[in-house]
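Mods, move this if it's the wrong board.
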Amino acid sequence: MDIKTLHDADFCNLAIAKTAFDTLSTAFGGHVENWQHEVVDRLHNSQWSGTAADHATTRIQNLHDELHAAQQEIALISRALQDAGEGFAAAQAHLISALDDAKAQGLTVAADGTITWDNNPDSATYLGDGPQKAQQIRDRITAAVTEADHADRTISSRLAHLTTNASNGTGLDATVATNDTAAANALSQIPDTGTDPNAVAAWWNSLTDEQQHRMVLNHPAQIGNLDGIPATGRDQANRINLARARTDLQHQLDGLGPEPDAVTGTPYGAVESPMHKLWKQQHDDLTEKLGGIDAIDKRLNTQVDAAHPPAYLLGFDTDGKGHAIVAINNPDTADNVSTYVPGTGARLGKVDGDIDRSDKMVAAANAANSKRTTSSISWIGYDAPQKLLSEASDDQYAKDAEDKLHGFEVGLHATHNGNISNNTILGHSYGTTTIGYTMKDKGLPVDNVVLIASPGAGVDTAKDLHIDPSHVYAAQSQADMIGMAAAMDPGGAADNAWDNLRADFGFDDGDHHLIHGRQTTTPQFGATVLPTNPDGGHSDYWNDGSPTLAAMGQVIAGK
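Not the wrong board. Structure tokens:
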């Protein structure tokens, strides 16, 4: 496929051929129905019996099945022609749009794709930024031609298969026709949530660009949150989800009406009004979620420059406390990919701080190695505990997140252009517990694990994470109060008591168990300990100038 061929192509004949096959399929279907009434039904209703009757009945029924299979195959040709026409038309429209923009910008595009412009500084039509504009147009033209090539290969493969079935009689087999129909239907059926991301990626790649575009527009909630869909597709879908959610949440907020009286009188004095309590809970939840949407929208639409790489919305919903997955730089094309899992309190309404941390980690990785691109993803894709005392001590939140985190990480590999050279999973606080449980129970396809301020990763040693222990890193400041979250389970508490007793006699070996497992910075755990600011608190590891932030950048950058 070349520019001239795509530009000049007339796809009317495809539409005419599709209509012809529709007519053929309808007429053929009429004959099959007539055969059913005039032959099959009459035979079944006759009183003919015996061996000859049984043979005749079987043969006639087989013939009916073959006719029905042939009708299905004819209908599939019509569907293939329709899909091809839509795919080619979309590619042609994208090409014409690029050529029109090129002309408006003072660029001339030759039939072979060569782009020229006025490069004379003394000329009235001099185009100083010609190289940049030409590259943008060139990329769009290449994308349009590639889109047409994909549509061409797809239609050729489908028609060749159906033609072979027709020529050798395979298409008369009911099982073959059923399988072919199922394969065609699968092109428009979105895989269920939890489907192997590699299978999702294969399904997505089997669609033409036009079909993918329709999926994004018609099913954004499913496409935007499905592991195995490329980052660009998920981002397009989730921007639609984001706008719709803002409208819906604002409508709910407006529907709450004015604030009720805060107190109500009782025989025992004034107490908070139940109506006010419910109103305030709903008001605060809606307001906070709208704030989270605003923060995401602001980052997505920040002008891209050296300090502000492009952002992609890889997941979004407002269920419960809300979820969001935001990537800084495209993880499908980056050399280094890091997924950051926040801990207690993580939710949609607090996403701005997590996005800021991803921005800082990309900058730290760039400082460590500027020759390789890095994507950092803030993954609020699970229901994190929200209360420090009553919820953060429960490991069920981590267990419930295992399938989601595992699917997301597998999906990053399924959609990446080539192999990810360096893949890191990084958690803070309860996020490290979530990571630890997932790695212990399911494993994760990552090269490095970074555990920041961990209350325990659900394992006793780094090797229990099913990764080379030399690629497990941990950090915890001396001033971080997470170190006070002592173990409550009998085994961990007994170990701590024994360790304390040994310390009294000068034999302290530094071992210590926290609420979700052995402290990750102890020698017995076996991780490489990263530097910290000894005076830093639980949330200070990403502060400007933090030695931990610089070390995180080194790990993420593969240094």
